[in-house]
Description:
This protein is of the alpha/beta class. The protein is built from 12 helices and 5 strands.
Amino acid sequence: MEMQFGAKLNCRKRRKDGTGSNGTTNDDPTIPVKISRLTLSMPAPFANENGVISDKPYERVTFEEAKVGTPLDRPVRVYADGIFDLFHSGHARALMQAKSLFPNTYLIVGVCNDDLTHQFKGFTVMNEAERYDAVRHCRYVDEVVRNAPWSLSPEFLEMHRIDFVAHDDIPYSSAGSDDVYKHIKDAGMFAPTQRTEGISTSDIITRIVRDYDVYVRRNLQRGYTAKELNVSFINEKKYNLQERVDKVKQKVKDVEEKSKEFVQKVEEKSIDLIQKWEEKSREFIGNFLEMFGPEGALKHMLKEGKGRMLQAITPKQSPSSSPTRERSPSPTFRWPFSKTSPPCSPKPDLDAAAYDTSDDDTE
């Protein structure tokens, strides 16, 4: 940060004192002060209407010398001209290419005025003052020539001490000429640049004309009056009605999108709940089977309890090595209130008694 701040101070000091980037004093007006574009905070200056005033003769540098690199006090002066209406990225890219043609380039940009432009090209959206100011604030521009000529004359080239002219290589037919840069090409002063496809002032105007109703409604909503937009009373009411209908459509669309989002969220939550319920049900069934299943914990607990009960009820057997004891006779049953039990009477033989009786009768 300190180095950048110091560089800015030194740059401002060189501009104020008229010193070059190498610290030497620059008293020659033909040698522009080399200022870093990164630290430049002011727009490019306008060129002197009378051109460069200097006692030194006008000596151009060759293409080979320019490519190798010229001294800092002798930059290659490259000129690029145009209308620059609705200044866009295509203009900026062309100027960037012109600025990058040589290691040490001083870019001069000529902008044609309204009269010449309306005469040879057509009506512009921006006036000349607006177009001058737009070009001045491009970072690649070192100097702006106002009221630039439509065709470059040798006098103009010498007055501004121009070494090369930068423009795209497509022949530019205008003002009764098949190519207004033909004499520049023949002189070996032409440095071609590339056009940016898909962007031009005509393309931008075509978009506006194609969507005219959209932009009229846009500006009406932004506070412009129908008179300012050159719109009739009936068309104004039509555009306002269309705007209301579009707002209603947009509200309906928003409601539909919100309802879709709500339904989607409900579906996601329901799916999530079902998945959680399935997981919990699987867990519950698993726990139930672990407890009450055929090989569950409850069966093992019952078996273990039954074994313990049987073990508690069954007497312990004597060890096989212990001596055997004689078994005591089982106690006999005694009748109550008697000292001795009565003898057991034999069961009478009814058949034998009947036989004996019959014998007595016969005798």
